[in-house]
Design goal:
This protein has 12 helices and 7 strands. By secondary structure, the chain is of the alpha+beta class. It is globular.
Length: about 300
C-alpha cells in the first residue's frame, strides 16, 4: 500500500505534482520484502506505531514523531509494520517544487530534492505538532482541489510553509554536521541559489554560467542530470511563478509587473507569459479575480 502511494502518478492529480495522505490505520497483509524504486520524493511522518524499512541498503527503524525524507529513485523495501501504524505521507514531483518554490528564503530546502541520501529526523514535540498541522493544511487544500478544482494559490503557499518549516527543523538537527554534496550537486545548489536572487533581472543561462565559472553547455548538462530540467526551464519557471503572484495582486498594473520582472516592454512580457502559460497576463488576471470574487 505505501509503495503504491509513494509511486503515485502525480501528473494525473488535481494539484499536478503534489499528493498527500493521512493514514489512520495501516495493516500490511503480506510481508514479501519487495524491493522497488521510488518514483517521487516522499516525506513520511510517523504518528504512532513503528515502521522498519531498508533504503539504499541501510535499514531504518522509524517510531512515533520521527520523519524520513525518501529521495526520488531510491531503492526501498518495507520490512515490518508494528503497533497500529499511523502516518502522514506527502509526495512531491521535482517539477512542482521547481515551479513553485524557487525563492531566496526556500532555496536551501531544495537540498531535499537534490540529495540522494535518505534523511531521518527525530522531532521534538513542538516540531511534531507544527508539521502535523501543516500536513493537515495541505491535506485539506488537496481535498478542496479534488472537489472544486485547483484555482487558488493555496497549494504553493502551503507547500512553501511546509518546506520552510522542514528547512528550519533540519538546520537545527544538523547544526553539528556538514551537509555533503558531490561536485555536481554543489554546482546545482550554487546555480539555484544565484537563480533565486537574480531571476528577475537575469533571464539568460549565460549569466549564471559566467557567475559559476563554467560554460553554458556544461551547466546545462549538469543541471539536467541532477534536476531533470534545463537551466533555461528553471529560469522560465521562476519568472512565470513570480509573474503569477504579481498578477494575483490587483495593486500592480501589468506595466508595473513588466518593469518589476525586467522585460523591455509590456508586449514582450505578454508574449513571454502567453508562450509559457497559453494565456495572456490580462486573461490570467481576470480569471484570478473571478476566483477571489467567488470566495
Amino acid at each position: 500500500m505505501i509503495k503504491d502511494l509513494i509511486n503515485t502518478d502525480l501528473k494525473k492529480l488535481p494539484i499536478e505534482g503534489l499528493d498527500i495522505h493521512i493514514i489512520k490505520k495501516y495493516e500490511r497483509i503480506t510481508l514479501n520484502d519487495e524491493l522497488f524504486k521510488t518514483e517521487n520524493l516522499s516525506i513520511l511522518l510517523i504518528r504512532s506505531g513503528s515502521l522498519k524499512i531498508k533504503l539504499q541498503e541501510i535499514t531504518q527503524d522509524l517510531i512515533s514523531h520521527e520523519l524520513i525524507v525518501i529521495p526520488k529513485d531510491s531503492y526501498c523495501t518495507f520490512l515490518e509494520v508494528r503497533d497500529n501504524l499511523q502516518l502522514y505521507v506527502i509526495l512531491f514531483s521535482s517539477d512542482f517544487v521547481h515551479k513553485n518554490c524557487l525563492k531566496k528564503d526556500l532555496v536551501e530546502s531544495l537540498y531535499f530534492f537534490i540529495t540522494k541520501e535518505p534523511l531521518k529526523i527525530a522531532l521534538e514535540e513542538k516540531e511534531y505538532q507544527v508539521l502535523s498541522l501543516i500536513y493537515k493544511l495541505i491535506y485539506f487544500v488537496n481535498l478542496d482541489a479534488t472537489r472544486n478544482g485547483n484555482d487558488s494559490d493555496l497549494p504553493r503557499i502551503s507547500l512553501s510553509l511546509f518546506l520552510y518549516e522542514l528547512k528550519l527543523i533540519y538546520s537545527k538537527h544538523s547544526a553539528n554536521s556538514i551537509i555533503s554534496f558531490n561536485r555536481k550537486e554543489n554546482l546545482v545548489m550554487q546555480f539555484l541559489t544565484i537563480l533565486s536572487i537574480h531571476y528577475k533581472k537575469q533571464h539568460y543561462v549565460k549569466f549564471y554560467a559566467g557567475a559559476l565559472f563554467v560554460t553554458a553547455g556544461y551547466l546545462d548538462k549538469v543541471v539536467k542530470e541532477i534536476t531533470g530540467k534545463s537551466p533555461k526551464s528553471l529560469i522560465i519557471d521562476s519568472l512565470i511563478s513570480e509573474s503569477k503572484i504579481l498578477l494575483d495582486d490587483p495593486h500592480y498594473t501589468i506595466a508595473e509587473i513588466t518593469q518589476e520582472m525586467e522585460f523591455s516592454s509590456v508586449s514582450v512580457f505578454s508574449n513571454f507569459f502567453k508562450k509559457h502559460t497559453s494565456t495572456s497576463p490580462s486573461i490570467y488576471r481576470s480569471k484570478s479575480t473571478e476566483g477571489f470574487t467567488a470566495l
